[in-house]
Fold each of these.
Amino acid sequence: MAQSYEGQPVRVTNRIGDKPAPGQLRIIQAFLNTANPKVGREDFISPEVLKSWLVENSLLAPGAHVTGVDVRETIAVRDALYRLLDVCHTGKADPDAVKTLNRALRSAQMSVLFDDQGRSHIEPLASAVDGALGRLIAIVHDAMADGTWTRLKICRSDDCAWAFYDRSKNHSGAWCSITDCGNVAKARAYRARHSHAHDQHPLQH
């Protein structure tokens, strides 16, 4: 979908792939995939692009103002969530990621509220981008509570880093796509093994 802010076209792309997460966690999956640190891709290149993505995902009101500071804070929160997901699977603590997320939660003024059915949930009291980031972190909180967070993974392919949802019964998924990344990784390993064997036993002429 294309939108326009201040005369400049803004392309909104939700990067999900063929292994989408369920429910609201899909927004976090798309959020994480707005960058690829292994190839240097960054989608949030301007306040206009960030605003377009947040509005598209119902996280921000269309009339909200977005600044360069908001872009930097959003990228910091996204990268912290990326590292937090890595902590989930490696068990290695990342104090800086936790510090960044806690700072964002304070700015979002998170509060526990009850809905009409008497169910509790957390949501931000702050408006604009601070509130939008609070809503994203609240989705992660809910995913941790229902067990779906641990199924969100980062592809192990050396040049991928794509966030995908692992639906395997034993949580053994390692690549974002068996057709693409999985086969690429297997082919790379195959070439490496045979190259090593050739170096050890070169053909005699």
Amino acid sequence: MLSILAAGTLLIAGCTKTGPQGPQGPTGNANVIGENPFTVSSWTAVGAVSSNTATSYYATFTDANITSDVAAYGLVEIYKLYTINGSGWTNLPDIDGVTTTVYNFGTGGFTISVLTTDGSLTTYPDSVEFRAVIIPSSVRQANPHTNWKNYAETMAVLNKARAQGMIK
């Protein structure tokens, strides 16, 4: 019993809340890029049947912020704006009835596509507002519990990083 008491005393006496400052860690890469919203109003038809129906539509964008590191290890999220009933931003892929909006990305850019889930013809998508968020692997790893598909949660991480001067 005396040995347990002695061990407990040593443990408590050995714990301190402060200590010497550790060395500066390596500079991280916190270059999260929350790009400005953009509107797509010009779509390329695939399998056009008429001037307003096709099997799918797409729009391709170049983006130098999608580096080979981002393409291989980071994350690119594309959000679509819904203005009906104040719904706000939703992440892609988005399914609205049988119409789906999807995207893919690679080094240097991304493509947004609109098609149907049942293979039927779709109508011209008209003007749609999107926003891209580009997240390097180091930021993704530094925020492992972030739901990057949730626009509000993603923007909270971006705003915190911006307030800390980590991003523009």
Amino acid sequence: MDLETLKNDIISEEGGLLLEPYQDHLGFWTIGCGHLIKDDEKDELMTPITEQRARELFVLDLGVSIQDAEIFYEGMPIDDNVKECIIHMSFQLGLPRLSGFAKFKRALINGDIETAMAEMKDSKWYNQTTNRADRLIAKMSKSV
């Protein structure tokens, strides 16, 4: 797995490193590279930040997403390509929401990538971020 490519792909999917707070498609206040602003961060992050701070937040968030993805896919018979797709989903959704993809997870445990892709498409997540989901499904199809 190429970490630099993964970083660049996620930054691109998130629309770059945005230095001013904005509301995401669900109305949540966000900054940097999709960093959800928590209540205890509002004093610092509800005003513009530096690119360096945006990168720091991204590295922290990506680290959490990788750890969460590793928990999710532990013991699954999947390749690095599928693992990267799960990291993307973990970054976007967080582990609690990703863990709700029970049929997706079961398909991956069974090594059934095609069913896993169908489960990705049959989700609220897909309907909310169709273009992004389609790109991840296309990426996963390379592992079939």
Amino acid sequence: MNATRLLKSIGAVAVVAFLCGCSTVHPRYLAQPEPLAVRGTYVHPPSGIVMPESVAGFRRDMVLRYDTDSFDVSAGYNFLSAIQPIVATVYIYPAPSLVSIGSPPEVVADARAHLTEREFERRKQEIEHVHPGCVFIEQRDIMQIENGQSYPGKLAVFEYEGAFAGSRISLRSRLYVFCFVGGKWAIEYRFTCPKHADTDEKIQEFIQKWRWFGTGI
């Protein structure tokens, strides 16, 4: 690499590092998660993202908030089936912020990709911490289309022994992370099911039919 290209590369990395910051939203976290009394579709107040009662046969169980202003919330969903039961949790919370200061779009895109990767690694580490000895199977880039806009995301798959429906069995867990939804929000999915259950199609149906700014089916 010649000197000019090296300087450009260093400059690009420096700009991306400069743009990457902490979230401008600062949740005041509760000592314990607090259940919210919700009937019908729940709308995340600051973002307008919806959590419907049902999506693709999954039924919502409980909506929890983790801070006083409901910036950070989650909803549990269950797909009850004798052959392919699935437990899902969907999280909405502040994504790390970007200060663009008039930066070119490609620089902002690089900074967002860097922050998404960092957030994804953090969430993977949470799973590994909660489930010691879990086996990392794979990860890959994914894409979600919402209202004509493309949102790049990350998928990771783990396997471990854990409690499920009153028994301790081999499980497969899928982690999906999307950042900068609506500009400054992160959406995280976690799906857990018996290891050998054929659930890929049902999980994809859930993801595709749940409209972040619409209603579930």
